[in-house]
Design goal:
26% of the residues lie in helices and 23% in strands. By secondary structure, it is an alpha+beta fold. The longest helix has 14 residues.
Length: 464
């Protein structure tokens, strides 16, 4: 390769990419991620532009016995993108998305955001299931599952992952698909960033939009749980057509009536996975469950729906700690607990949610993907979000204690690994999440990363 393009004093051999080190211009900006609590100091950041750059960075890390972290969108709440005293591979320059509309396949570089994929696919009236925040990285969300609005009809993000190109710990580029290195593809479908750097994803696309029906009637917590109970029964009947959450938050701003400001409320937010007109009629009952605080329902472009929640969590502005737990069912007692926890939130910026499953998500066998068992009916998440470091302890305790209080309603102790707190529960949490698939993942980890070079994640040690 040519000489290093870098602002370092010394040029690491073989790297033809921008390299940043502590004390140099751009280093602090490059190590900053979405969660303002994350403040780590890599030994080196390599800003990659292509797979060759990634391979060179991995080879340099191997030659110098450095652990590797990987930044795609930088949106993981635990800050796994940034390591201390290791090599950070920055994919944020690799955001190209190419759509083959005839084959209904999207080719997505490893640093792309969901808004990049949504915009490119919607230009052809197509989409693949993503998350609820559009500046989330495609890589991070996908590799641990990917739960979004389209899950009712099209499953999780991993259920639509058909192939990938991966730089493994030995610096080699490997293609994985159903017919080529299928064990690696299986592991990528929920196993996190344990197996290498995904430099390109291929996703199956589906006809979606451009207009979809989004329902979001807002009810006051103080008015009681009856709308949530009615929503539960409604969603249970339509789990194959509606992706939905009951989201608790604090009313405020010009979109809410002034008399509601500061009150805890909940939105029965739902997206119909089909024709917008059909969805408007089907979702209408959710808007008739009592006196509403306000109603944000309406037909809108799919890309707009995908960006509706972005303002709740602007990058770098808030401190965050999130936990989530799968639920076997959604009992009246669990609904009451969720309401109690919502009222106790110490920050007006915090949200908590009840998520439905079923539909296409539930139709995937537990051993078909690393993600594992799909028999959970619901999920409960607590997203602590606050602006000031002095409030860290109170807000982290709220999320953690709310998560622990829901354990009696949990599904085999399993949790969504994209909401891992700050990763402090370690291997115990990871083992529980993967269940019977864990030992298979250990063997695949040992094959592709025997020295555990990629360990800044919900780690699966190779145990070799």
């Amino acid at each position: 390769m040519d000489t290093l393009k870098s602002n370092t004093d010394a040029s690491p051999d073989g790297i033809d990419a921008e390299v940043l080190v502590p004390g140099r211009a751009g280093f602090d900006q490059a190590r900053s991620v979405w969660n303002a609590m994350i403040d780590r100091q890599p030994a080196m950041i390599v800003r990659c532009r292509n797979a060759d750059d990634v391979a060179a960075a991995v080879n340099h890390a191997r030659a110098n016995d450095l652990p590797i972290s990987v930044r795609a969108g930088g949106h993981n709440v635990a800050g796994h993108a940034v390591c201390d005293e290791g090599l950070m591979i920055d994919l944020s320059l690799m955001r190209k998305v190419t759509v083959d509309a005839e084959r209904r396949i999207a080719s997505v570089q490893g640093g792309a955001l969901w808004r990049d994929l949504d915009a490119a696919s919607q230009a052809h009236g197509l989409a693949t299931p993503g998350g609820l925040i559009s500046d989330t990285g495609v890589a991070g969300l996908t590799l641990s599952g990917g739960i979004g609005w389209l899950r009712a009809k099209h499953g999780l993000s991993i259920d639509n992952l058909v192939a990938a190109d991966v730089i493994t710990a030995d610096g080699k580029l490997i293609h994985t698909s159903a017919s080529e290195n299928p064990d690696l593809l299986w592991a990528l479908k929920g196993g996190g960033g344990n197996f290498g750097v995904v430099v390109r994803f291929e996703f199956a696309l589906h006809p979606v939009g451009p207009e979809v029906m989004f329902a979001a009637p807002i009810y006051a917590v103080e008015d009681g749980p009856e709308p949530i109970r009615a929503w539960r029964e409604f969603i249970s009947r339509h789990s194959g057509l509606v992706g939905s959450i009951c989201e608790f938050s604090t009313a405020g701003g010009e979109d809410f009536p002034e008399e509601s400001w500061g009150k805890r409320v909940y939105a029965l937010a739902s997206v119909y996975n089909g024709d917008a007109a059909e969805g408007e009629a089907l979702l209408q009952p959710l808007r008739e469950l009592g006196g509403m605080v306000t109603d944000f329902s309406g037909r809108m472009n799919y890309c707009d729906v995908q960006q509706l929640f972005d303002t709740l969590m602007p990058a770098g502005e808030y401190r965050c700690y999130w936990k989530a737990r799968y639920l076997t069912d959604l009992s009246d007692d669990m609904i009451d607990l969720a309401m109690k926890n919502a009222l106790a939130a110490p920050s007006d910026n915090s949200i908590s949610s009840l998520w439905n499953f079923g539909g296409a998500t539930a139709q995937v066998a537990s051993d078909a993907t690393a993600f594992g068992d799909r028999s959970m009916g619901w999920m409960y998440s607590l997203d602590g979000v606050w602006p000031d470091a002095k409030d860290d302890a109170a807000n982290m305790a709220w999320s953690r204690e709310g998560w622990e209080s829901a354990e009696p309603y949990g599904h085999h102790g399993r949790t969504y690994l994209n909401f891992p707190g700050h990763g402090e529960d370690g291997n115990k949490l990871t083992r529980a999440a993967f269940g019977d698939n864990y030992q298979r993942l250990v063997k695949i980890k040992a094959k592709y990363d025997p020295l555990n070079r990629f360990r800044f994640n919900q780690n699966i040690p190779p145990e070799v």
